[in-house]
Amino acid sequence: MDGANIHPEIADLYPELIQIRRELHQHPELMFDLPRTSAFVASYLQALNIEVHTGVGKSGVVGVIRGEGPCILLRADMDALPITELIESDYKSTTPGKTHACGHDAHMAMLLVAAKVISRHRDRLKGSIKFMFQPAEEGGHGARFMRDDENYPVLDAEPRVDEVYGIHMGNQVNLGDFNLSEKFMSTYSDFFDIEVKGKGGHGSSPHLCNDPIISAAELIVALQTIISRNVNTKFKSVLSVTTIHGGETYNAISDSCKLTGTIRSYETEVRDLLIKRINEICNGLSVANNISIVFTLHPLYGPIVNDPTCIQKTEAVFRKICPNANREMDSPMIGEDFAYLTDVRPGCFYMLGCSTTEKTAPLHSPNFTFDERSMMIGASFWVQLVQDELFKN
């Protein structure tokens, strides 16, 4: 934080930033079921005399400040994760099995406080702003539901959006730095199920069975050869088998075994190859072992591809706040439905450095945490972006 040019109004509102983030952190809600969270956001925006649309994309909230000129959209996500928080604090999640382990509480706090500051200067605007608070980023395609909402399509409803911007907490990036790739900021993200169905029986008589556990084990090993032997080494990709479920007891061979996992890739051709090879391996092993193997793909999101001009704007704004910032240029292997917005509008999405002194537990960990001072940088970024893009000289 040394040398950071925090917007003075944001600095004054730092206690409120903390209070909002912690209030939201204590009351996490999942996917589209966000009654308390959506109401909190809508009420805060309405108190600022900002036009508010609720129920967008089921439970999203959009705040609008109108002006003559271009329109930019600033996005925060609202949903938490189905994880039990392990960190002890006076603002720990009050709901077992739910916590904000991906920083969405901070995303909301930064955008709400930035909206407060921006609303104070609305007479200086030469354009419009949409503050987008979306549900169901965590696997529910919430951005698509808001984009395609019949009553209020967030990008096309007047004022029509020209550019979109998003921030994500990056607690593996140092406080005061940022991660902004020149190309991809997320991957194709797909989940899969593989059901192996054989013939069960007594554990003492495997010769009378067709053991799905053995075939599942062979399958796991075979799948791990796809990236190392089929994908060109210049491409980054991931194939992870993350669960295996089969059998109930010590002395019985199960009829079936189920595998689940995820594949991640940036390029369409790599994704297509991964899917093709999974199918081929499943089919081949099915024939070889005379067993049923069914592969089911669950597509999630495509990759975020940042617009070159918006990248330049983002870096310029960030360096006004943190002149000495180190810009990391890694392409994260995350899935992010902000891609539904950048698919149809120019925009930029980046990771805000918020690491504590030592690198902390990663996103989606029950021990996830971050340095709350980073929220002053993120909120200042939003205000500075609007000043640079939409304020009259």
UniProtKB/TrEMBL annotation:
Gene3D superfamilies recorded: 3.30.70.360, Zn peptidases
Q: Which domain of life is it from?
A: Eukaryota
Q: Where does Mn(2+) bind?
A: 102, 104, 138, 168, 364
Per its UniProt record, what CDD domains does this chain match? M20_Acy1 (cd03886)
In alphabetical order, the GO MF annotations are: hydrolase activity; metal ion binding
Keywords attached to this entry: Hydrolase, Manganese, Metal-binding
Q: Cofactor: bound how, per the entry note?
A: The Mn(2+) ion enhances activity.
Keyword Manganese: yes or no? yes
Q: Which InterPro entries match?
A: Amidohydrolase, Bact_exopeptidase_dim_dom, Peptidase_M20, Peptidase_M20_dimer
Q: Where is the Peptidase M20 dimerisation domain?
A: 192-283
Cofactor field? Mn(2+)
State the family named in the UniProt similarity comment for this chain: Belongs to the peptidase M20 family.
Give the protein name, as stated in the record.
Peptidase M20 dimerisation domain-containing protein
- Organism name: Blepharisma stoltei
Q: Provide the taxonomic classification.
A: Eukaryota, Sar, Alveolata, Ciliophora, Postciliodesmatophora
